Amino acid sequence: MKLCDRWRYIFYCEGRLSADERETVEAHLAECAECRRDVEMMQATMTTFERGESEELPPLPRELVNAAVAHARAQFVPLLSQLNAALWAKL
Ligand SMILES: [Zn+2]
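^ thats the input. predicted complex w/ zinc ion below
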């Protein structure tokens, strides 16, 4: 099964996924070289960052950043319209 949930990798690298989600990601990484490369790149970026060597930061793949942004937006927009509806209801 090929399921490239790239937006998850940032959370995965930060250790913010639940055990279940982490397992899903790791199972996918085991069979998807492309995603493995992305995660390795991200981990390398984070290590460099933690060492305070941000000038030497390797660039993240553009598509990865786009996927994360698209995901954040997809979650944020419905949230925002819910919030708006709640506000209007009070007026
Ligand atoms: Zn993949």
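The pocket of zinc ion is lined by residues 4, 28, 32, 34-35 (CB under 6 Å).
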